[in-house]
Amino acid sequence: MVPNDQPAELDLAVGSMITVRPDEDREAYNEEYETVSVVQDQLREQGIDVDLLAMPGVQVWEGGLHHMGALYQLSRMAVHLEHDEDIADVIEDGPVIYDDDLDRMVTDIWDELTQTRFAHLVNLQGINSYFLPVEFAQPVWLAFEDEDGNEDSAYFASSHRLQQELAELSPLLIKAGVSPQSEAYRCLELFQAAASASVNAGLPIIVW
């Protein structure tokens, strides 16, 4: 969790994608309902059957990640350990992102050149991301237009798969010498808490 006096670089919540109830603001509810209905239909076209219209206005959990670099470092650790590689250099690098020197093993997964058993974790790159409380094998991206009419995409992954991936990754990190007090490990614990809340409540994780 992020200390109250430190802004998060990534905010997370577990709750409905419809942020208001119809009795609170009928117009806003109708607008959000229409938007989320379209997303739900698009996901079903991808073979992902999920109810995103239930429990409008409900939020059951929130948290935040102070450094995006911790997520990137955690992803680096996951893919290197998957290939039985030593991660001493990744630990030494710390939770930093060098845009001109990104880890090829991670970017090849982002670019869909290689696969990973930690797909739902590693493909998370930031905002406009959602983890849905249903099982499906691979994350998907859906295209949309932002408020300025520019093309963008939203990331949809599975809370169930994320929970499974983190449960597998956690002991691998400890065995490899990653400190439970490190930012990368705390990032893992943050997403474990979010995934657990999502699975238990049947609501998506919303990342922005």
Descriptive notes:
There is one protein chain. The model has no long low-confidence stretch (mean pLDDT 95). The protein has 208 residues and is an alpha+beta fold. Strand 4 and strand 5 form a beta hairpin. Helices cover 42% and strands 16% of the residues. The chain is globular.
Would you summarize the structure shown here?
The chain is α+β, with helices and mostly antiparallel strands. Helices cover 42% and strands 16% of the residues.
SSE string: EHEHHHHEEEHHE
Mean pLDDT: 95
Measured as a percent range, the helix fraction is 40-55%
Count of helix runs: 7
Major beta sheet, strand line-up: 2-1-6-3-5-4
Number of domains: 1
- Provide the structure class: alpha+beta
Alpha-carbon Rg, integer: 17 Å
So what's the overall shape?
A: globular
Distance between the termini: 15 Å
The percent range for strand residues is 15-25%
Main beta sheet, described? 6 strands, mixed
Segments where pLDDT lies below 50 for 5+ residues?
none
Q: How many strand elements?
A: 6
